[in-house]
Structures are given as structure tokens and as C-alpha cells.
Amino acid sequence: GESVAPSTEPSTGLAADQVIRIALPGEPPTLDPSPAQDANSLAVLRALHRPLVYINDKLEVVDALAESHEISADATEFTFHLRDAKYSNGDPIVAGDLVYSWKRLADPRTAAPYSYVISEVAGAEDLLAMAGADPAPSDADVEAALDKLGVSAPDDKTFVVKLAAPATYFLSAMTLWVFVPLQEKWVTSADAFEAANYVSSGPFMLEAWDHNSQIVLKPNPNWYGDVKPTLTEITMPIYAEPAAAQAAYEADPELAALRLDFTPALRELLAVLLAGLLARRPVPVSGRTGRAERL
To answer: Can you state the angle between helices 39-48 and 264-278, rounded to 10 degrees?
Structure first.
């Protein structure tokens, strides 16, 4: 019989339909990174935003939004050099956005449950002490304390963090979702965190949020990472009851079930906690330069 020449087309090994469905066991209370604390919100936020540094699949802290970074010899000053990057709305990501985001996290008026992770930064303890104070501090007192917080942007591409004391593990803490850049003009706009207005800095953007029904993410066309998403869509149906999620899974085996105890954000939190425990042991401190690793 007639032989057929082998195809010269490379095989990608990828499914033709690059859509993944991940069940969320409940409505995310917020998609605002600063006050977010629950697993449902974090499962979405980790796809929408990316901080200066990130924990990769090998549990290594690598540069993300930062092109590179340096840590002072006494481990009290971290300097980050930002890569050329844009938000999903096309605006450039600048160091001033990080200053705003970090101050917002420390601001007692934000009432962020995870604000304590910024306690190592110079001036942060004074702000954290204001939370829940009776009488409440005046806006003038809060603003004065924020002015003393150890974060600055010498220029649009440089972000500097000064710590109150050496903390070799603080770089790991900076991988958390609360340290992502945020545009003040976006955060302070009306309905900022609804899909129609949402601004993301990560590989995906918020396409739709049908409350108590589903969330849909699409690739961010302005994502700065060298590796672009191969997924064309992430659909997250929301199930208030575990039995409903189980029934949907059995009816459609392609539906992935989200395990709350193994979400990427919680794995990263465990890594940060481990880093903090290890930091209690004597660690040699010297000047170090971060090497950029494209994500």
C-alpha cells in the first residue's frame, strides 16, 4: 500500500480546548487584595495579581514584577528595580503604586486582617497600634504616621523598603497577595472591584463576576511575563454547598474541585511561616543581589 509521510507539524501535547473549570466552594467576600483573607478570594486573586517577588513551583522566591533586587549588608533595606510592565488597563505599573498599596495595607482605616505582615517595616508598628484604638486616631495622626512608613519610590522604576530591624525572611513574606501594586485612581473609583472596572497586574484579568454564580478570568493582554498563559479561559462556578459541587463534578468529570487546604496562596503562606521559623536560627547576613527569573 501507499505509505504516508509522518507529519512535520510539531505536537504541543495540549488539549484543543484550553479552558479550565475550577469550582469555588462559596462566593469570594472580596477581590480587593488589601483586606482579602479567605481561601475563595485568594484562589482568584493569585491569578489576577503579581507582587514584586513570587514563589515558583519549586518553592523558590524569585523576582516577578521586580527585574532585580538588592538587600543591604545589614538586611534592613531592600531595593527593587521594576521591569517594564503594564496593568490590564494599559497603564504602566510604577513604584508609586507600591508605595500606595503598602501604605493602604498598614493604614488602620483599611482594617486589613493581614496588616500585621508589614510589621517589620520601619514605622509600621505605630500604625498597627492605631487599629482598634479608643478613641480612634484622627485622620491627621494617621497621615502623619503613614508619612513615616519605610517605603519610598525614588523614581518610577525603583521601590525601596526600610525595615525597623534585620529580617532575613521578609523577602518571603513579600510574596503574599497583600503586597501587590495597586493604582490609587482605580481603587478609589466607584465599583472598582466589579468586573467591568477591575484592574489586574497578573497573568489573568477579571472578565465576569456573576455574584453567587460564577467568575470568569481571561488572559491579560498586557501581562509582562515571558511565559504567556496557554489557557484561554478560567471558569470558576460558585457552589454554596459541597453537595452541589460534588454533583456537578460527577455530572462533568472535567470540572476541577478546589481543595481549600492546598490552594497556591495557602502553600505560599506556609512557606512564609516556615521562613519565619528558620529565621530564628543564626543566619549569615551579607549583601545580596536578586537575579531576575522570568515567569
So the answer is: 90
**H helices of the chain, where?**
39-48, 95-106, 124-130, 139-147, 170-173, 184-187, 242-251, 264-278
Taking only the tens place, the pLDDT of each residue in 252-264 is 766 555 444 344 4
Would you state the torsion angle of the CA atoms of residues 82, 291, 265, 30, taken in this order, to the nearest 10 degrees? 0
Report the Cα–Cα distance between both ends of the chain, in Å, rounded.
49
Per-residue pLDDT, averaged over 45-58, amounts to: 93
Query: C-alpha cell of 195?
Result: 468586573
Cell numbers that stand for 138 in this block: 484622627
Show the CA angle centred on residue 283, arms to residues 278 and 285, nearest 5°: 135
Q: Which phi and psi angles does 217 have, rounded to 5°?
A: -115, 145
Contact 166, 254 (CB under 8 A): no
Give me 120's grid cell: 517589620
The set of residues, in sequence order, having a beta carbon less than 8 Å from that of 120 and lying 6+ positions away, is 163, 164, 165, 167, 170, 173
The average confidence (pLDDT) of the chain is: 85
